[in-house]
């Protein structure tokens, strides 16, 4: 049976924050199936965790991930540059969990997100560790510090255009003071995963 026609809601345990919108669930499943994409793996049954999505090489990543979010009924928060949060588009982006971040100013984003994890009974925070669609030799470490200080694990999501697969997992603890080593282990789990533009990642 095609993976997109299995009961995808069962891929989320009862503790994971999720929406009950059946129409969007069907839209997400249908669009992914029509485009030939499938979901593989599973999220941990936890109320709180940080999701790192990689590789991020194209504007097409967002609509594909949005369809996956709807297909799974996942209700995550995510960060985006404040310039895109304007007018009706800004309203829509906030409705689907977007948090505008002003990159040109100095704000303690990590502190704010750690506080949000402490205040909310459920929270999944999704972000791209590269922080850009351009090639970067090193991932930004903000996601590690958020997870470590909030006491939540990091869960990988791989957007693999080579296999047209959105892979959920594996899960990593963020307990070490050595963020570089921890991030290196996480990044190694993406070996063989191809973004839409493979030349923009290693």
What does this structure look like?
The model is unreliable at 1-10 (pLDDT under 50). 32% of the residues lie in helices and 20% in strands. The protein has a 7-stranded mixed β-sheet with strand order 1-7-6-2-5-3-4, with helices on both faces. The relative contact order is 0.20. It is an alpha/beta fold and 202 residues long. It has one domain (16-57, 76-192).
Gyration radius, in Å:
16 Å
N→C terminal distance: 34 Å
Would you report the number of β strands? 7
Task: Indicate the overall shape.
Answer: globular
**Main beta sheet:** 7 strands, mixed
Across the major sheet, the strand order is 1-7-6-2-5-3-4
The share of residues in helices is 25-40%
Uncertain stretches: 1-10
Q: What is the N-to-C order of secondary-structure elements (H for helix, E for strand)?
A: HEEHEHEHEHEEH
Strand content: 15-25%
Q: What's the overall average pLDDT, rounded?
A: 86
Number of helices: 6
Overall structural domain count: 1
Structural class: alpha/beta
């Amino acid at each position: 049976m095609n993976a997109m026609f299995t009961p995808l809601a069962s891929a989320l345990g009862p503790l994971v924050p999720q929406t009950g919108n059946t129409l969007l669930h069907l839209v997400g499943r249908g669009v992914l199936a029509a485009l030939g994409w499938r979901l593989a793996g599973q999220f941990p049954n936890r109320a709180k965790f940080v999701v790192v999505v990689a590789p991020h090489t194209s504007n097409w990543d967002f609509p594909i991930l949005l369809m996956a979010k709807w297909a799974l009924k996942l209700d995550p928060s995510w960060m985006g540059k404040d310039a895109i949060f304007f007018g009706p588009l800004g309203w829509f982006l906030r409705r689907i969990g977007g948090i505008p971040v002003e990159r040109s100013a100095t704000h303690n984003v990590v502190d704010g997100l750690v506080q949000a994890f402490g205040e909310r009974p459920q929270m999944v925070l999704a972000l791209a560790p590269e922080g850009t669609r351009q090639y970067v030799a090193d991932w930004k470490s903000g996601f590690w510090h958020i997870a470590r200080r909030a006491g939540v694990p990091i869960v990988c999501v791989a957007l693999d255009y080579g296999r047209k697969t959105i892979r959920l997992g594996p899960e990593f603890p963020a307990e070490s003071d050595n963020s570089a080593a921890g991030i290196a282990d996480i990044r190694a789990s993406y070996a063989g995963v191809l973004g839409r533009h493979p030349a923009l990642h290693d």
